[in-house]
Structure formats: structure tokens, C-alpha cells
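Standup notes
- DV: blocked on the single-chain target, sequence here:
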Amino acid sequence: MKGEIGMANSFLSMNSNFISILPTEPFRQKLEDVGKLLLRLLFGLSLALNHGWPTFRGAWNGVTDFPDPLGIGANLSMWLAGSAEFGCALLVVFGLLTRFAAIPVLLNFVVAFFIFHA
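- DV (later): unblocked, structure below
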């Protein structure tokens, strides 16, 4: 019994250097927050600038060559897709109403994937 305790103590002392290099809990939380921010910035700005802004620009310029997968009219489809891709993506970037803003984006991609690209 005494030998087992001695072994456990020597094992802990060998690994104490390894344990001391692991980040502390507040530091891990900060890293997690920074990671979430970077993901929001990367995906939100990419969606808003590469998809949403051209869609809005086309709607403002009167472009009518836009798919109408739901049968609601090309103009309305364009405005709804642009709102989801640009406006809601920016809400996600800024962290405002993130869960609610993600719903129109999700619906937009569901329609694009299962109806338009099917």
C-alpha cells in the first residue's frame, strides 16, 4: 500500500510540469471567445460581401434575371435572398440576434440546395 502511494506521488511529480503548461480556465475561455469571433467574422462577412451585396445591388439596379424556385416572383425572391444573405449575415457578424438572424440564412440555403440546385 505504501509503495502504491509512493508510485502515485512520483507519477504526479513527473506530470506536474506537463500540467503547468496547459492554459488556465480563464485563458481557455478567452481563446474560445476569440475563436467564435473569428468564425463569425469569416463566415458572416464572406456571405454578406460575396453573396448578399451583389444580390442587393442587382435588386436595386432592377435586374430581373434571378431564379424563382418557390414561385413567388423573381423580384421578391431576389429581395428575400438578399435580405437573408446580406442583412442577416451582418447581424451574425455583429452578434446581434444571432440565433434569429441565422434562421433566414439557413432557410435561404435550404431552398438553394434542395430546390434550386436539386
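- Follow-up: The chain has a mean pLDDT of 83.
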